[in-house]
């Protein structure tokens, strides 16, 4: 089976602190792969190393068989990697629709900010624009965002803002999607919806999903495999049932 994402001995240091320590893993195409671990374990740092926000101190990162170590975030996004952030990174002065269109912007030949002119001219760029809108409409339907499509994201409840951010990442049609604590701050009903959507996204799109998550119930229900980190090191990687019973995982979570 082919490998969507590979980390080879990835280490990230901040001065004397080793945030991620010699992490190696291969995530298969189509897998839902989760990363768990206590606060400060190095989970977000690992995502930042993958998406190019941080340069790795040592080791290498591979996306669909191609080395992306040291590439900038934009270049990596163009190669098919999208992500969400632990803390929301939406444009609050934009509507839901505009935030999702921004996710498409990677694909647009013309600058996003020229859209009004493009539409006026009805040239080839305008045809592209219609295609982009259709894709965004599909995501709006999928994530049940119809009722808030024209509302500023700053006016939406937190849970819904997180879904918009998920939608924006999906709008880029990634082959690999990184979700950093997608369920944090969601109520129970929203968490159930999220599980439903993640499964739906996998069923509908040709996609590999990595999830950082604290909620063990959620993680075990959606993941094919889980990697547990502690103090930047990988403790164990395997099937959910095995990982949650691993003595070091139990210890890391219970104190
Ligand atoms: P997690 O997401 O597992 O809670 P992080 O990856 O955010 O953990 O952080 C791992 C460690 O790396 C922490 O000790 C954190 O303070 C440190 N760290 C993360 N980013 C930076 C940074 N930009 N500069 C300095 N230290 C950082
Ligand atoms: Mg984090």
TrEMBL record:
Matching InterPro entries: AAA+_ATPase (IPR003593), ABC_AA/LPS_Transport (IPR051120), ABC_transporter-like_ATP-bd (IPR003439), P-loop_NTPase (IPR027417)
**Where in the numbering of this chain does the ABC transporter domain appear?**
5-254
An example Gene Ontology molecular-function term: ATP binding
- What is the top-level taxon of the source organism? Bacteria
User: Which GO terms of the cellular component aspect does the record hold?
Assistant: plasma membrane
Q: Which UniProt keywords apply?
A: ATP-binding, Nucleotide-binding, Transport
CDD domains from the UniProt entry: ABC_Mj1267_LivG_branched (cd03219)
SUPFAM superfamilies in the record = P-loop containing nucleoside triphosphate hydrolases
Record's protein name: Branched-chain amino acid transport system ATP-binding protein
Species annotation: Flagellimonas meridianipacifica
